[in-house]
């Protein structure tokens, strides 16, 4: 596949055929993905290939509390897990929330789940002293995550970045033996997608790129970037 086609069609795949994801294919995916950048080239990421059905089921289970809150907040018209706007969702709302099992199901049923962690003992987090949630640390692991997904796409496979599991990091640590300094960045259910989306809904360039200043002129209201 052409690079442009890969980037434009790597969607969040959540339904998979029964096809396996063989080790040799995974090996090729990792072989490409490993060229991701990280702060200071410290390469603190680690990927755990989880095929054991019990482990996958447990990872799905561990994802449920965060998924429940995500769905409850969405139902309440909130922006789920938002670091700026606190939630008004109550325990009663959470108890009434439906759809949690389906939301985490891809983790339980995918042929393989990749759990990606990053060693906080080596990442550089230049925003760690600001009075807001940290974001820079993630930049030393999510390029690798995205490389995995795009490399998988070019091999005809697909998956989703899921992060509900991160809220239950201790449980993942216990289940998979993740060291104390590693943060759990994502669980990626991976398989052969039942359907391939080819037209992703994304805002056009002119809506989020400006010249010189945040409030500067929109960059290129170019028709090619629409759709
Ligand atoms: C940081 C991040 C966290 C995400 N967490 C989840 C998740 O926990 N569960 C899930 O089903 N999808 C998750 N997604 C997938 C997004 O919902 C998906 O990328 C987005 O809706 C675009 O979907 P599309 O590429 O199919 O258009 C996550 C994506 C990102 C980038």
Short description:
With about 230 residues, this protein is of the alpha+beta class. About 35% of the residues lie in helices and about 10% in strands.
Task: Give an overview in words.
Belongs to the nitroreductase family. InterPro entries: Nitroreductase, Nitroreductase-like. Residues 12-192 form the Nitroreductase domain. With 227 residues, the chain is of the alpha+beta class. The protein folds into two domains: 3-196, NADH Oxidase (3-Layer(aba) Sandwich); 200-227, no CATH class. It has helices spanning 3-9, 23-33, 53-75, 91-96, 100-109, 142-154, 169-176; strands at 45-50, 112-119, 158-159, 182-191. The chain has a four-stranded antiparallel β-sheet, with helices on both faces. Helix 3 (53-75) packs antiparallel against helix 5 (100-109). The mean pLDDT is 96. Flavin mononucleotide is lined by residues 11-12, 14, 160-164, 197, 200-201.
What's the arrangement of secondary structure elements?
Elements: H1 3-9, H2 23-33, E1 45-50, H3 53-75, H4 91-96, H5 100-109, E2 112-119, H6 142-154, E3 158-159, H7 169-176, E4 182-191
Antiparallel strand pairs: 1-2, 2-4, 3-4
The chain binds flavin mononucleotide.
InterPro entries: Nitroreductase (IPR029479), Nitroreductase-like (IPR000415)
Family: Belongs to the nitroreductase family.
Protein name: Nitroreductase
Task: Give me some keywords for this one.
NADH Oxidase; 7 helices; 227 residues; binds flavin mononucleotide; 4-stranded antiparallel beta sheet; 34% helix; alpha+beta
Distance between the termini: 20 Å
Under the CATH scheme, which architecture of the largest domain would be assigned?
3-Layer(aba) Sandwich
CATH class of the largest domain: Alpha Beta
Structural class given helices, strands, pairing? alpha+beta
Main sheet overview: 4 strands, antiparallel
Superfamily at the CATH H level of the largest domain?
Answer: NADH Oxidase
Give the uncertain stretches in residue-range form.
Answer: none
Helix content: 25-40%
Radius of gyration: 19 Å
What number of structural domains do the residues give?
2
Number of E-type strands? 4
Which small-molecule ligands are present, each listed once? flavin mononucleotide
Question: Number of DSSP helices?
Answer: 7
Q: Would you give the CATH topology of the largest domain?
A: NADH Oxidase
Instruction: State mean pLDDT (0 to 100 scale).
Output: 96
Strand order of the main beta sheet, please? 1-2-4-3
Order of helices and strands: HHEHHHEHEHE
**Percent strand:** 5-15%
Outline:
globular
Family: Belongs to the nitroreductase family.
Organism: Gordonia neofelifaecis NRRL B-59395
Protein name: Nitroreductase
InterPro entries: Nitroreductase (IPR029479), Nitroreductase-like (IPR000415)
């Amino acid at each position: 596949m052409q690079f442009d086609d890969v980037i434009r069609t790597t969607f969040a795949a959540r339904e998979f055929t029964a096809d396996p994801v063989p080790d040799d294919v995974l090996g090729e995916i990792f072989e490409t993905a490993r060229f991701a950048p990280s702060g200071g080239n410290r390469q603190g990421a680690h990927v755990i290939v989880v095929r054991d059905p019990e482990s996958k089921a447990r990872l799905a289970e561990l994802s449920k509390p965060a998924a429940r809150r995500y769905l409850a907040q969405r139902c309440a018209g909130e922006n789920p897990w938002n670091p700026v706007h606190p939630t008004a969702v109550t325990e009663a709302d959470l108890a009434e929330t439906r759809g949690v099992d389906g939301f985490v199901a891809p983790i339980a049923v995918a042929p393989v789940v990749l759990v990606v962690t990053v060693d906080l003992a080596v990442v550089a987090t230049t925003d760690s002293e600001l009075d807001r949630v940290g974001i820079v640390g993630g930049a030393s692991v999510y390029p690798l995550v995205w490389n995995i997904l795009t490399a998988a796409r070019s091999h005809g496979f697909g998956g989703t970045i899921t992060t509900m599991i991160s809220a239950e990091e201790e449980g993942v640590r216990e289940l998979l033996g993740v060291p104390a300094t590693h943060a759990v960045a994502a669980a990626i259910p991976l398989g052969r997608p039942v359907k391939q989306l080819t037209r992703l809904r994304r805002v056009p360039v002119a809506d989020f790129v400006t010249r010189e200043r945040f409030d500067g002129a929109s960059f290129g209201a170019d028709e090619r970037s629409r759709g």
